[in-house]
Each structure stands twice: as C-alpha cells, then as structure tokens.
# Entry
Amino acid sequence: MRDTDLLRHRLWVQIGLPLATVALLSACDEPAKVKPVKVETANTGATPEPTKQPDDAAKKAPAVARTTTDSASPGYVPPARIQDIPEGEFDYFGPARDPFTEHEEEDGCPAGDWCGTPENARKFAIEHMPEQLGCPSKIIAQPQVTNSLNKKDKQWDGLSFHPMMQGRLMTSVTTEKREAGQKDICCYHWFEYCSGRPLLDGDDMIVAELREGSSWSCDPAKVAAPDDRPDSAIDPSVRARLAQLWVDDALMEHAAIAAFERATLELMAMAAPPSLLGEVQAAASDEVEHAMHCFGLAARFSGLDREPGPLASLEPRVRGLAALADHDPDSAEVGADWIRLAIDTFVEGCVGETIATLVARRAQRHCQDPATLALLEQIVEDEGRHAGLAWQTIQWITEASGKHSDVVLEALEHQAHAMAEEAERACEQLPPADPHAAALGRYGRCDRRTELLARRDAWSQLILPTLAAIAQTDTSEQGPEAWT
# Structure
C-alpha cells in the first residue's frame, strides 16, 4: 500500500469520512502530472549503504578548515560557534539573523532566489521594518498583492507566491549585481514554510530567537548515537546540516505550542465544543515533547547547548461571537470570522500537519539511526492526529457556521487550489540531485527533491481529496482511535 493510501485511510477514519468515498474522488487521487525534469535523478529508491567507519588516520585528521563563506562551495563547513559567524553572513543556528548567501536552512522546504526592483520588492515588504541598501530587508507573501499581479510577467521569475513564502535580502548578491551594472535591483533568498503547524502573524512566521542553554533539550541518552556508529564518522558538512535542520525544527515545534494555544482561544471565541478544545490542548503538549527531542538531536550533532528565548505574544485573529453578539448571526461580519477561522485552520493545520506527516513517514524509509527513527515514528503518529484534528475542526466550522457554510467552503476550495498549483509548479523544475541525499537519509532527513515531491503528493492524494470529501459528505461520527 502506498504511504499516501495508508495515511489517508487513517486520516479519514479519524475524522469520520466513509472510505467508500475514495471511489467517487478518484480524479483527485491521481498523481500530479509533472513535466520532465532535465536533471540527474537522485537515487532515493535504493537501499542506502551502511555508514562507513573511519580508519585510524581519518579519526586523527584535523577538522575541515573553513576556507569560504559560500555554502554552495565544495567542502564548505559552517562556523562551529555563533560568535564565529562573520558580520553580514547567514546565522546557521536559527532564523534570528538575515541570510546573505545561499544556505541549507530550508533544505526540507521549497526555496529559491529572486531579484527585482526595489519598487516590486516593496510590494511584499513587512510594514515598519527598516530597509537595507534601499531594499526591504525581509519580504513575505502578500495574497492581496499577488491576486492583482500578472504572475507570468518576467519581472516575477523566480519568486514564490505561496502563502507561506518568506524571504530575506541577500546583501552580498545585491551589491555584486549593482557593481556589475544592475543599479536598480534587490536580491532575495526565499523559502516556503513547510513543517508542521506554524505560528503566523499575518503572513509572517514567528519563532523564538536562539540562545545558549539546555533547558529545552531532552535527556541526551534518549537521542544518543549507537556505540558502533559514533557521530565522529559523519562527514563534517553533513553533520552541520543535520544540526541545522534539527534546530530549525526545534524552533518551529516550540512555536507550534503557541499556535495551538492561540487556536484554543479562537475556537472558544466561536463557541467550539469541549471535544475539540481538549484535543487542541493535548496537541500542544505533544509539541513540547517534539521540541525537546529536536533540541536534543540538534545538541547531539552540533555539540552546542541551545534553547529558545522569549516568544512574541499574538492576539486571536477572530473577534468572536461574543463581540458580535449584537449582530445578526447571518451577517457578513460573523461570516468573515468563520471564513478567517476556517482558512487559518486549513493553512496551519490541514496543510502544514498533513505534509509534515507524509514527510516524516518518508524520512523513515532509509533512517538507520535508532534515536532519530524513534522520534520520526512518534512524529508520524502525533502529527497524523494533529492533521486529523485540523480536519475535524474544518468539519465543525462548516456545520456551526450555518448559512455561511457555502461561502466558507468556497473560500477553502479557492485557497486549496491556489496552494496546490504552487506545489505542483515547484516540481516542474526540481533541484539537482543532492550529493548528500543518502547520508541525510540514513539520519532521517529528506533532501529538497524528496520534500518537494512529498508536498506534491500530499496535495494531490491527501489534502485535495479530503477537502472534497468533507464538502460532499455529511459526517457526524469521528474516530480518533485511528491514530492510537
């Protein structure tokens, strides 16, 4: 059975959808059609070779010297300590600083580069954030702007219009292009957030800044390397990438706790039942465990103790039925709150958690590290339930919103198909095969190609069929035992 078939079966049992509906939605279940890619295909289907142990000479060899600040160069090794990062260079220990060069932070998510005029960049700028070099220092998705643009115009080539896109100014690239004669230009590296439930402030993803400390790391024994496969045997550049990927996930899992707590307040504002509220609180507790294990793995691979600092507090995004008590429940203002709650739940929960579940399941395929494999198994279990919870919430919204149900579903379908098109478009030109794909796979991490394909499959075989089934099916019973 395909992994997507299995996940969909468990998901639909949890949210109470009749499995026979699959036959009615076969058009949604066909794999997305992707144009041929003119790059070497990564060998992700073969069983990876066991990690080779270094000989005595290799064990005694000095660490690879840092000779360049260009992470795309062969043999590049990130700095070992935060204080060693040169001014103006990307912070490899979390998204606390701006990236100015190509980097590996978002290997698990679609990413790319875009250069445009300052005027065009300002269309996607974050309000009140200071500029650098006459350019916005950071850009984020702006759906209201995107809808008004001709996205096929060459001036937008390379830019993602995904609702979860965010990018930061590359000052070095911008300066080089200006010195080469392109005076009116700003260059950015962007990525589309794709891990679990994000904490969003508008379209901007919020995570805590990283600081020294170990209070958020689990017991090192729970994530330790096997005695016969010490981490010293891992290529230094691969080990640095593993450390960065896990610390990125740790910060996102930490932020997901707040995302679930805010969801609790928003659901209570719309008079949600205790069954949903209890599950949301339990999901927040799951994210605490995920964050601690991710910080533990980050410490293992980096040799550094790091923890999240304070996290910004965000207000609920719906006014709530109490604030609108004087209004007709069928009014446009009440309808706007239902639509907002539905879209936020869909983007953050249905999309983020469903994709995270499939990615984690595929990361299990070649994982040979016992501690990582145990965490991935737990993440598949937990994120699968969280995805089901988000879909259950969508079901409840469509029922509780009354006469607004049709416009809620219409808004969801519009959002879903726009995001699905972006996911499929990202697979039309896959990145080159990652030379470290097999090594990353042995330690439970997907390379960028694998991640992009998983996102596409999640949309075509999980997210779109589930939304279509909810729109067509009147369900009253749920089965959370599907993920136990």
Q: What stands out?
A: The chain has 14 helices and ten strands. Confidence is low (pLDDT under 50) at residues 21-108, 475-484. Residues 236-269 form the longest helix (34 residues). The first strand starts at residue 111 and ends at 116.
